[in-house]
Design goal:
This protein has helices at residues 7-23, 26-30, 50-60; strands at residues 33-40, 48-49, 68-78, 81-90, 94-104, 110-119. The chain is of the alpha+beta class. It has one domain (7-119): Nuclear Transport Factor 2, Chain: A (Roll), CATH 3.10.450. The chain has a six-stranded mixed β-sheet, with helices on one face. It is globular, with a radius of gyration of 14 Å.
Length: 120
């Protein structure tokens, strides 16, 4: 059984995600997710599953440190789920508007992460 998530848990998780995004360190990535988590990065593909699958998928599509700026806000928290709206600006002059749905499991780690994005 999972606990209800609060804004502090969601904010801490997004900040830790950003840190992992910049470091690309496998331990930082693993720390975000439960061992059997699913990470849906593209709507029409299977998710990355478990620590090994998430780390592998993340590192295959990683951004290099300093390549992006990232602004975000929590839109909603309900039960064990948080919704985040964000804007990612790449130094290569690409901008993405993102919506994340994060379902939390034990210890403030995500057991399911889904992202949608559109390039502008």
């Amino acid at each position: 059984m999972t606990e209800n998530t609060n804004r502090d848990t969601a904010e801490r998780w997004v900040n830790d995600y950003r840190r992992a995004w910049e470091s690309n360190e496998p331990d930082d990535i693993r720390a975000l997710f439960t061992e059997d988590a699913e990470y849906f990065s593209v709507p029409w593909e299977d998710p990355w599953r478990g620590h090994d699958g998430i780390v592998e998928g993340w590192l295959e599509s990683r951004d290099e440190p300093g390549d992006t700026t990232f602004e975000w806000e929590i839109v909603a928290v309900d039960g064990n789920t948080a919704v985040v709206r964000a804007v990612t600006v790449y130094t290569a002059e690409r901008t993405y508007h993102n919506v994340w749905v994060i379902r939390f499991g034990a210890n403030g780690r995500a057991d399911q992460f889904t992202e949608w994005y559109m390039r502008t």
